């Protein structure tokens, strides 16, 4: 469900780099002939204030146009079926602060407090080589050209796991907002489990992708403050804690039991489907808010 608009944003940067690479480079010394007498720079015979005003007006008009396009593509406040089902039926509360790239899920499970943190940066900070090129696929180029201002619809390609564990890519039907139930990018999770009356905490480093939560490692911290350090001393102490072996190197039966332990606490397929889709939903919402904020600043 990673939006084509996200791919399109990288296209101008790529084109700019190519243009820069092909532009001949000349020495500043070579451009100035040694015999040419020094000439005093000419002073502008007109005011530049009107030109600056026109530039601001053009920028404001472009921001307005971009916002209108995005608004026509999707309704940023409307949840897809996947998001709505999770929010209404999951025991987790969604904590989403406007203007922030971070989102938190939290719940109580018996005497435990479970917190799941993720971020929209997993879209905007994906390595360029992992992002599909905006014009590598003719179909994507057609979609790009069909939109004005470089915006694109939220078409998506979903991944699914086959019986033998391999990943299979196939098209997925979308709902009325153009969203599907699965996405094509990994969402990194920081999961913390604390028990009432105990100082320690478990911290799980995991990835939500392809309707599954894949565990990378499990940390045990004797002091729960180390799970989310707020000061340099705690951060320094955290670095010296033994992290445990990579999850995939554990005994297979132990892996199965640990996975069941986390599944019982709601870290399951429904969450794995929800998080990447919510990231895309929030990124779209924050992008539209960003357009409005920049316009307001320029217009003031």
TrEMBL record:
<dbReference type="InterPro" id="IPR036561">
    <property type="entry name" value="MAM33_sf"/>
</dbReference>
<dbReference type="Pfam" id="PF02330">
    <property type="entry name" value="MAM33"/>
</dbReference>
<feature type="compositionally biased region" description="Polar residues">
    <location>
        <begin position="145"/>
        <end position="155"/>
    </location>
</feature>
<dbReference type="InterPro" id="IPR003428">
    <property type="entry name" value="MAM33"/>
</dbReference>
<feature type="region of interest" description="Disordered">
    <location>
        <begin position="125"/>
        <end position="164"/>
    </location>
</feature>
<protein>
    <submittedName>
        <fullName>Mitochondrial glycoprotein</fullName>
    </submittedName>
</protein>
């Amino acid at each position: 469900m990673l939006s084509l608009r996200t791919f399109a944003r990288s296209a101008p940067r790529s084109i700019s780099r190519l243009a820069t690479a092909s532009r001949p480079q000349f020495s500043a010394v070579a451009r100035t002939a040694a015999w040419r007498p020094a000439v005093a720079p000419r002073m502008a015979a007109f005011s530049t204030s009107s030109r600056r005003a026109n530039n601001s007006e053009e920028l404001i008009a472009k921001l307005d146009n971009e916002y209108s396009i995005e608004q026509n593509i999707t309704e940023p406040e409307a949840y897809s079926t996947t998001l709505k089902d999770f929010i209404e039926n999951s025991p987790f509360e969604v904590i989403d602060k406007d203007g922030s790239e971070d989102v938190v899920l939290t719940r109580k499970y018996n005497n435990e407090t479970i917190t799941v943190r993720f971020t929209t940066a997993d879209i905007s900070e994906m390595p360029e080589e992992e992002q599909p090129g905006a014009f590598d696929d003719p179909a994507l180029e057609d979609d790009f050209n069909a939109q004005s201002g470089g915006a694109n619809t939220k078409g998506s390609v979903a991944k699914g796991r086959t019986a033998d564990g391999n990943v299979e890519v196939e098209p997925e039907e979308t709902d009325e907002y153009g969203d599907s139930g699965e996405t094509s990018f990994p969402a990194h999770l920081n999961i913390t489990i604390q028990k009432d009356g105990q100082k320690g905490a478990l911290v799980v480093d995991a990835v939500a992708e392809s309707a599954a939560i894949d565990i990378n490692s499990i940390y045990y911290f004797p002091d729960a403050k180390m799970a989310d350090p707020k000061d340099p001393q705690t951060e320094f102490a955290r670095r010296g804690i033994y992290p445990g072996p990579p999850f995939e190197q554990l005994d297979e039966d132990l892996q199965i039991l640990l996975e069941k332990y986390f599944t019982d606490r709601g870290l399951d397929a429904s969450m794995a489907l929800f998080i990447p889709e919510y990231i895309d939903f929030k990124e779209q919402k924050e992008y539209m808010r960003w357009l409005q904020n920049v316009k307001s600043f320029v217009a003031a």
